[in-house]
Amino acid sequence: MKSKLVLLISAFSLASLTACNTIQGVGRDIERAGQELEEAID
After folding, report:
1. Cα dihedral angle (12, 15, 18, 19), rounded to 10 degrees?
2. Which of 2, 11, 29, 31 could form a disulfide linkage to 16, CB 3.0–4.6 angstroms apart?
């Protein structure tokens, strides 16, 4: 289960990082990834 979660988060992070063009965008993407992680843990 944890390996699937890590894979999902990694894929989401990679997609988010490739989609953003600015440092601010990276910060927002990382924040969203953290929120997704918190929701997945709950």
Report:
1. -100
2. 29
- Identify the residue whose tokens are 């990276």: 26
Task: Give just the sign of the alpha carbon dihedral 35, 13, 6, 8.
Answer: positive
Tokens of 4: 């699937």
Q: For position 1, what pLDDT does the model report?
A: 66
Secondary structure, 3-state, the chain: CHHHHHHHHHHHHHHHHHHCCCHHHHHHHHHHHHHHHHHHHC
Contact 33, 12 (CB under 8 A): yes
